[in-house]
Amino acid sequence: MKGQFEKIYRISTTYQTYKVIGKDRFQKLKENVLDSLLKSKKTISEKESLLKSERKNIQKLNTELSKTKLDLEAALKKENSISLLGAQLNKTTYNLILWFIIIALSLALSFFVFKFSRSNILTNKAQGSLQDVELEFENHRKKAIEREQKLRRQLQDEINKHRN
To answer: Where does the record place a coiled coil (predicted)?
Structure first.
């Protein structure tokens, strides 16, 4: 474009202080300039429509990004919490409750094992004492039966002596 203006300026004739350009060359330059302006306007229009579509795309992507961020926050919140009896609890709180229950049950189990072993020892002692007492009672009963039989014999002997 710039080259065409310089060419026309060089080949044009001078009249006083003016440059004289031929009509056909002027028309050709005019067509070229208008054609270049039309191309420029068309390019600008294309660039503006492209810019507009890119702005819409950016706005759409920003909307999707904010939605994705919200989804991520919800997913992280869900991941860091556990539902216990319908209530959402933080994992740390859940772990504390779980360990408290485990420790409480372990202590209760230890207490009952201790009580059971203690009761078992006392029961074994009582059973041993019972066997000793039963053995003693059995010996005493046998001796009492023998004494009673001896006394009956003596009584029968005395009765027999007195009859005779």
So the answer is: 44-78, 130-161
Phi, psi of 76 (to 5 degrees): -65, -40
Characterize 101-130 residue by residue with b for buried, 16 or more Cβ atoms within 10 angstroms of its Cβ, and e for exposed: eeeeeeeeeeeeeeeeeeeeeeeeeeeeee
Q: How many residues does the chain have?
A: 164
How much is the pLDDT for 163? 87
CB distance 89 to 97 below 8 Å:
yes
Instruction: Answer yes or no: pTM beyond 0.70.
Output: no
Confidence of residue 15 (pLDDT cuts 50, 70, 90): confident
**Of residues 92 and 103, more confidently modeled:** 103
State the pLDDT confidence band at 1, using cuts at 50, 70 and 90: low
Which of 35-58 are b and which e, b meaning 16 or more Cβ less than 10 Å from the residue's Cβ?
eeeeeeeeeeeeeeeeeeeeeeee
Query: Which residue from 21, 24, 27 is spatially nearest to 9, judged by alpha carbons?
Result: 21
Instruction: Tell me which amino acid residue 66 is.
Output: S
Question: Is residue 26 within 8 Å of 17, Cβ to Cβ?
Answer: no
